[in-house]
From TrEMBL:
Protein name: Phorbol-ester/DAG-type domain-containing protein
Keyword set includes Transmembrane: yes
Signal peptide: none
Coiled-coil region(s): none
Domain of life: Eukaryota
Phorbol-ester/DAG-type domain sequence ranges: 29-76
Record Gene3D superfamilies: 3.30.60.20
Keyword Ribonucleoprotein: no
Keywords noted in UniProt: Membrane, Metal-binding, Repeat, Transmembrane, Transmembrane helix, Zinc
Provenance organism: Kingdonia uniflora
Length: 257
């Protein structure tokens, strides 16, 4: 069944007397309400993990990212010239399709280009092209010839290069998927539950993944840390659909310590 999407983003006005509910065709039995949470959840639309804002039905334990709650019927992306993506609740065919941005399989909601077979998760389709913060600029690249600064690999999966954020000096590259995996690993290890000693554990986890060369000079280390702060503070918020940036704020405070 094909749905014609007519959803509109929620208004910024808040009513403190009552909760505002929203309907969605993927969950017609109950309306969904907007919540802000600190613990990770799995979106029942795209099946990827999120944190921060979600639209949920507590009776059915049903959650949606904002990008899955309010998709557009069609979408274009500058990395795919002459391609038009159509939003689908389920991807066509019986074989596994992989997101051309992060390399993960597309198991639920997603955007599909009928003509060329490209696929994108809703969150991945909305990644910002440029990030500027603290005198650091990172640019989203669809095809980088150098290895990722985290995994030291050029591709995220066989046949899928994956998107990366690249520094303007072109010395640092971060796969979008590697940043996401770093955050999820920290959650699995319980580093986001704010227990005593968690900040140190999270800092060690992040710095291990950074893999700064032991013989690198002081200037290079300093530049690496400045760029890493921006990567983990901004990109994590975007990749995990956290517009409140709450979880990334914790990452930033850890890296600043």
């Amino acid at each position: 069944m094909r749905y014609i999407l007519q959803h509109q983003p929620p208004q910024t006005q808040r009513n403190h007397q009552r909760l505002i509910y929203y309907s969605h065709p993927s969950h017609p039995r109950h309306n969904l309400k907007l919540l802000h949470v600190q613990k990770p959840y799995r979106c029942d639309g795209c099946r990827k993990v999120g944190v921060g804002t979600k639209y949920c039905c507590e009776r059915c334990d049903f959650d949606l990212h904002k990008d899955c709650m309010f998709p557009t019927t069609t979408k274009v992306h500058p990395f795919f010239r002459n391609s038009v993506f159509f939003f689908r609740y389920r991807q066509p065919g019986s074989f596994i399709r992989y997101c051309d941005a992060c390399g993960d399989d597309v198991r639920g909601f997603g955007y599909h280009c009928r003509e060329y077979g490209y696929n994108l998760h809703p969150c991945c389709s909305n990644l910002p092209r440029n990030i500027q913060s603290e005198n650091v600029e990172l640019r989203l690249r669809g095809n980088v010839s150098l290895n990722c600064s985290l995994c030291h690999m050029r591709v995220v999966r066989r046949g899928v290069t994956g998107w990366s954020y690249e520094s303007t000096c072109r010395n640092y590259h971060y796969h979008v998927s590697c940043v996401e995996k770093m955050a999820l690993e920290s959650w699995r290890n319980g580093h986001f539950e704010h227990r005593e000693g968690d900040n140190l554990a999270l800092a060690n986890n992040i710095r291990t993944l950074q893999r700064i060369p032991p013989r690198a000079n002081r200037f290079r280390n300093s530049m690496f840390m400045r760029i890493a702060k921006v990567v983990f503070r901004v990109i994590v918020s975007t990749v995990l659909c956290d517009p409140t940036a709450g979880i990334a704020g914790l990452l930033y405070s850890v890296l600043s310590s």
